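We now fix the convention by which a protein and its fold are recorded. Here is one such record, which you should read through line by line:

>
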Amino acid sequence: MKKILYLFALLSFSAYSQELDYKKRSEIVLEQFRNGEFMAVYKQIDTAVFTKVDTAFIARNWANVIKQNGKFVKKIKDERGRQGNFVVHTQLCQFEKKQINFRLVWGVNEKIKGFYFVPVDDRPKYKTPDYYNPAAAREKKVLVTTENYRIPGSLMIPNTKGKHPLVILVHGSGANDRDETFGPLKPFKDISSGLTVQGVAVLRYEKRTRLFKSRMSHETPNYTVKQEVLEDVKRAIEVAKQDTTIDTNQIFICGHSFGGMLLPRIAKENPSIKGLIYLAPNARKLEDLFLAQAEYLAESITDPVRKNQVIDSVKNERERIKALTSKAAVDSTMIFGSPVSLWYELRNYDPVATAQTLDMPMLFIFASRDYQVTSVDSEMWLNAFKSNEKVTFKMYPKLNHFFVEGEGKSMPSEYEKPGNVDIGLINDMASWLKGIK
């Protein structure tokens, strides 16, 4: 969400004055803004610092606040603080559309050094799951360092004696953080909370493309899944093996969506891992999956012209991927936000066929209300492994792509509501892990 931020930079530090009634003075400044008395506001600004500020500039700032948020309604509360040696006074104000923090920064010369109009972030917040127990595990900060990329992560270690099995979490597509945050949802954090309570350690880390996307585009513009995923997973395994609390013979990799699709590649390159947990892995090519998703979402568009535009735009990108030649291996042109070098590599990768060459325990988890990875994919996986005794399938009728329970047709708006990964799913994961010898 874009924040409206009107800021005068704070450029000097001075002594902090205790005597002045900054609460009263700040209330007066707010009233002056409300009444359009911009000359009165201007006279209180430190013009030695803000040489280009005039009343017209101040008026435009206030006009923008009103335009974005509606008329001023009332002041809700005051808060006083400090920023270095400055006095900072904040007034929480209710406007017609939003609540705004009006923050004034005062210097020792009794002049305004800066002011902000900062919208209150009213987006839904992450909800801690009922199964979270802070006493169940301790967090160890780790660095997954590959060449000159230093990626921070969290190793959650159960507070029980002995060595623990470990699950390493691999993100889905996009620039994900270690919690795989999507709005108020944090599925990786939930999984970590649920598994550590049951004695399973969990390692999760930031995705390289989240922290270093621009740098990667500069240093290795034609990067592939090696740079985006595989190198960091390999290093995460090495980091985990260095911890004396981890049973190095019981390391499992759990991948969500795109990360699940890559698990067979990861297993091929890391033969020491014990098993794989697939969370809604796609079996189809990503470009085909994206088109299916666009067609699904377009069903709710009533304007036929707009509907066709949405579908056709994805079709065009899909056809670009289908038409790639070997020259794409050194091409950094972007499709769907990733270089064509990556798309060319994925086009020649069959996750199902690759997984069939593995000889290890595998758990596949799917959600019936998932519109991003659907029954088309789950049936492809099931048909390939239905006679393999080392492979287990689980389907959850009420869950969506992030494994949060819901009802009816799943849509993107569902992801804007707080929710947590289903505890039944996590319990099934834990039981499966403990059953692997």
Confidence is low (pLDDT under 50) at residues 1-19.
